[in-house]
Amino acid sequence: MRHTCFAILLICLSTFVSALEVEDHRLFPGTGGQTLKVISTADLEVFEPYLKAFQSQHPSLSIDYTVVSSSELHRAITGGAVFDLALSSAMDLQFQLANDGFAQSHQSEATVALPDWARWRDLIFAFTAEPAVVVLSTERFQGLELPTTRQELINVLREYPERFDGAVGTYDVRDSGLGYLFATQEARSTDAYWRLSEVMGRLNPQLYCCSGQMIDDVADGRLSLAYNVLGSYAAERLARNSEGRVQILGMQDFTNVILRTAIIPTTAQEKDAAGDLIDMLVRLGQRDAPEDWPLPPLGQSGRDTLAGFGPIRLGPALMVYLDPLNRRTFLAEWENALEQRQ
I need a labelling partner for 189 at 20 to 30 A (CA). Which of 17, 213, 320, 326 fits? Predict the structure, then answer.
């Protein structure tokens, strides 16, 4: 009977894949008949420890874990796809889902203990705080002074264009929900964003959907640097296989810090299990130290808040750049800056 149920699940997944761009998928079989369906932007190698820890507490529960981009996750939930839990690094799109009625409420001792800036109306819950960083190739930067601010990065790119032509990576914000969030938040916080974008635009930048691909291309020597990637992914990949070829830089003038968030979609069929996983995640998010978990806790974002290192806050302001007119205007300016040689 269990094999029959898993076969049905796989058939349903194949139908779903045809309608959605799935980056990865894994079924973690449990001993019972319940299955928790999770859609997430977190790579499996990063999130698997959390799933295994949760399943060790709920061994009868199977977990069906699907990895998609943040834009695809948003499309899936608004399109009525059946998932019990949605986890995303694009907190503006998550907030829009919650605000537009696509999320169910959940309340527990764990969620109530979250600070106000890390939850909204018992609908959306943050469980990590992750900075955007620059990842660079130590070989390509050999002999150069490492930049610590955007202006210093601009100066390096201008002075040594031959080193960086075709070798600068950043998000294609037209397709990447997280990339769009980083770009809009940075543009409203520092004038240096547009100056840097124009300089990168003259260097034939390579555009990506995901942090992981950019980091891998820096490690493999195809890129000199990747701009605005998730620091948690960079640290995890460097811990596995860096061999000194890659270095992580945090910009000291301003750093975006995103909150990775969870919602329970209105289509959820295993709401209680989804709530239990949220509770585990937010408890881990409130731990005092990173410990051995791949993703950082919420508490590390508290440092230097006034200097621009605080987390992007959950709230209606996140939806400003999701307005269709504002989005079209922003993307037009972004294309003018980044696609000068195309």
Answer: 213
How far is CA 294 from each of CA 148, 233, 238, 283, rounded to the nearest angstrom?
25, 8, 12, 15
- The reply to whether 54 and 76 lie within a common domain is yes
| Per-residue pLDDT tens over the stretch 130-166 | 999 999 998 889 889 999 999 999 999 999 999 999 9
CA distances, 335 to each of 183, 236, 292 (Å) = 12, 31, 40
Beta carbons of 227 and 192 less than 8 angstroms apart: no
Show the tokens assigned to 114: 């979250």
In Å, how far are 40, 125, 141, 241, 319 from 245, measured between CA atoms?
A: 29, 36, 10, 9, 38
Rg (CA), the chain: 20
Q: Which two tokens stand for residue 10?
A: 């796989």
* 114 and 176 inside one domain: no
User: pTM for the complete prediction?
Assistant: 0.84
- The answer to whether the beta carbons of residues 314 and 147 sit under 8 Å apart is no
> For the chain, what is the domain count?
2
Which residue numbers in the chain have pLDDT < 70?
1-18, 240-243, 290, 300-310, 341-342
What residues make up the domain containing 189?
132-256+323-338
My answer on whether 285 and 236 are in the same domain is no
How far is it, in rounded angstroms, from Cα 221 to Cα 235? 18
- Residue 65, φ and ψ in degrees, nearest 5: -115, 120
* DSSP single-letter state for residue 299: G
User: What tokens appear for 258 in the block?
Assistant: 């995103």
14 occurs within a structural domain: yes
Do 305 and 327 share a domain, yes or no? no
Q: What's the sign of the alpha-carbon dihedral 198, 203, 206, 210?
A: negative
| Strand (E) or helix (H) holding 240 | helix 231-240
How far is CA 330 from each of CA 124, 181, 188, 341, rounded to the nearest angstrom? 26, 11, 11, 19
Q: Which of 81, 33, 36 is nearest to 63 (CA)?
A: 36
